Amino acid sequence: MAANNIEKSYVSCSSPGTNLYPNDTATNIQITREFNNYTSDLKQQYPDKFGFFASLPLPDIDAALLEIDRALDELNADGFVLLSNHWGLYHGDPKLAPVYEKLNERNSVIFIHPTIPCPKNAPGEITGTPRLDYVAPLMWAYQAPVIEFFFDAARTVSDLILTGTVQDYANVKWIIPHCGGVLPAVFERFLRTSSLLGPKVGSDRPAVPYTLANATALLEKQFWFDLAGFSMSSQIWSMSRFWGANKFLYGSDFAFTAAAGAIGLTGAMNETLPQLYNDTEIGWIFKGNAVSLLGG
């Protein structure tokens, strides 16, 4: 961190998360608690260097509610990390209402990390070719971070917006990684198409109509986007059409992106961001926005 001029890091559990066994809730809860205890201890030992986002044992709603209180009241979590789906439970699902009500009461920050897509009727095993072939047709050919992660992140953000979940829980703040995944390419299209077609017959989701202006303003209030990964060549340019420098956060994807790769990606930011923003705004992206959002 010191060698790369990083004052403070916020750590969290990436995909596949802490809920590894679809039929063993007790083990999932134990893994979640142990991970949260570890990251809390890291923050306690080095409070100026580390913060953390606690994991939740979703899709178990009752266990998640208990862990929210424990993470905030006992572990001093800075927010929560959720996967783009939890065994097919996407974030606009009405089953999550009790979780969002509590997170809204606690003015929580939620960081979403993508994972592989999961239809509700997918086989339960977390590993193995049959399940991966079932949930994503090209998983046999490409690793999940190549294609699927970016689509699943945009899928769950679309679900959050179109169901009205974001506006219903106005105290919740969201961080979306990888400069929104494919969101820049589909943002206007899914808003306009949903308004045109209306709700799907038989769906448990409401279809809240949005104009592009209304949805952009909603995300301006409640969303931030980290710049981890290869976000500079095209994504940042598209995102900058909708939101200003105050909505972007530095991200490294370390340690799944090795240190050398993270350094190279930071170099790309240093080359590209001055083409879009002034020095003050770049300072917001690298530090100021995170301090404002997370309290430093």
From TrEMBL:
It comes from the Eukaryota. The keyword NADP does not apply. The keyword Metal-binding applies. Pfam families: Amidohydro_2. Residues 31-295 form the Amidohydrolase-related domain. Its EC number is 4.1.1.52. GO terms for molecular function: 6-methylsalicylate decarboxylase activity; hydrolase activity; metal ion binding. GO terms for biological process: secondary metabolic process. One of its GO terms (cellular component) is cytosol. Keywords: Decarboxylase, Lyase, Metal-binding, Zinc. It catalyses: 6-methylsalicylate + H(+) = 3-methylphenol + CO2. Belongs to the metallo-dependent hydrolases superfamily. ACMSD family. This is 6-methylsalicylate decarboxylase.
